[in-house]
Amino acid sequence: MTGAESTQASLHEPDPVRPTQEDAVAAAGSELIGGPVGRRALLGTSWWTPLRVVALVAIGVFALGLVQKAPCYNGAWFFGASSQYTKACYSDIPHLYQGRGFADGLVPYFDKLPGDMDYLEYPVLTGVFMEVAAWLTPGTGTIQHQEQWYWMVNAAMLMVCAAVIAVSVARTHARRPWDGLLVALAPAFALTATINWDLLAVALTAAAMLMWSRGRPVAFGVLLGLATAAKLYPVFLLGPLLVLCWRAGRWREFGKAFGGAAGAWLVVNLPVMLFAFEGWSKFYRFSQERGVDFGSFWLVLAQNSARPLSTGTVNTLATLLMLLACMGIAALALTAPRRPRFAQLAFLIVAAFILTNKVYSPQYVLWLVPLAALARPKWRDFLVWQACEVAYFLGIWMYLAYTTSGDAHKGLPTDGYHWAIGVHLLGTLYLCAVVVRDILMPERDVVRLAGDDDPSGGVLDGAEDVFVFGTAARPRRHALHFDGPRVEWGRRAAAAPGDGSL
Questions:
Q1: Is residue 47 pLDDT above 80, yes or no?
Q2: What's the CA gap between 92 and 194, in Å, rounded?
Q3: What does the pLDDT read at residue 407?
Q4: Hey, what's the torsion of the CAs at 6, 7, 13, 18, to 10 degrees?
Q5: Following DSSP, what letter does each residue of 285-336 receive, concatenated?
Q6: So what's the pLDDT on residue 498?
Q7: Interval 141-159: pLDDT, tens
Q8: Neighbours of 110 (CB within 10 A)
Q9: What is the CA radius of gyration of the chain?
Q10: CA–CA dist 31, 9 (Å, integer)
Q11: Among 327, 328, 401, 434, which one has the highest count of C-beta atoms within 10 angstroms of its own C-beta?
Q12: Which CA distances in Å does 375 have to 22, 230, 408?
């Protein structure tokens, strides 16, 4: 392309979206670093591209989360059960180093564990992650010293996952790289990142979303299959994708995605299934047998009932509620006046699973953070939800401090903890409500207001509908999506995203 042609093409390419121009909260927050950046400030020879800024901020905030765990690292994990709760620095990682046999060199899924937990209760790919960290942990010194090293090794590996998540979100919406800062700066993300190993599945899911946005369904499927081999929730993304591909008539691409996901999941799981079935199936048996636990509305019902529901009954009711939610999301996708964006439905389906599940561990918020940033990149709504999650994060540790401090009763009593659960539920429902509103009223969707159709949709971006119901069946469904040239630019930029100013 000649210089003249390049200049002419650039005139038709919309600038990357700058949140400080479209979002009042982002503009106000930018005053902390000198105010909104000019249009050309970060272009040209500057090293500070949006992707680099997002990645460095994600690593920096993750490091702050590690500092927040310092009181436990220096002794609270080992000396006194309640201090790790009153200081809100609890983590499963050091406790499970010895509790799940890694300190003794036991092989996950193949070697039985002492006590009631007969095998490791995690999916296979997460077990591999845990085992690799154990290999890298020095086996000398006291057990406390080894547990400290194990946590640090895992923290370093999880930091890579955090950077992958933030960068994947920044690259998924090519014209909105700064939306990655929603992930990088999310307070609940930093507070919960090293509680457990959820970031592995979240990173694979975020990378899968990026691949789908680039029109690579097989790569999307492979990454989603690997994510499902690390945690169950990513498989739910295939449901919304099925409905969207049904509406757009993109069956071939969905078939490739499904095949890639099934194949990748089998490659990881099949060897363990064949040679250690009892150990492999422990995760699924544990999920079924586990009773009502922390964070769910089921726990509030159980603790306020003279005759709590049995585990089997809760399993059945939770499954029915999830099925109803899936049916509602499918109906929404097929009847909305304009085909919803993939990220919107992905967020709703995972949120539905979290809301109906019989347990909500504080680190489960990590599942939603990247999806929320893609579904509703509006700082006010995002921060309202994050405030609710931080309140729950503090609430559960204060409740555990109350239950483990004996007669001292330090912390939050049961009624107070129920309020914390309610705050978490209301915050998640609020974000679901504004996403549903955006679907029903697409003119209020901040992504589409900028001129895009579905930048995370890949082959769905700008595609016409072939199967719709209700209001979506009106003739306007084939109208151009706001601005045709912007949609076309989005496809080109997806292949090689450029720099943009904040």
A1: no
A2: 8
A3: 67
A4: 120
A5: HHHHH--S-TTSHHHHHHHT-SSPPPHHHHHHHHHHHHHHHHHHHHHHHHHS
A6: 40
A7: 899 999 999 999 999 999 9
A8: 14
A9: 23
A10: 34
A11: 401
A12: 16, 23, 45
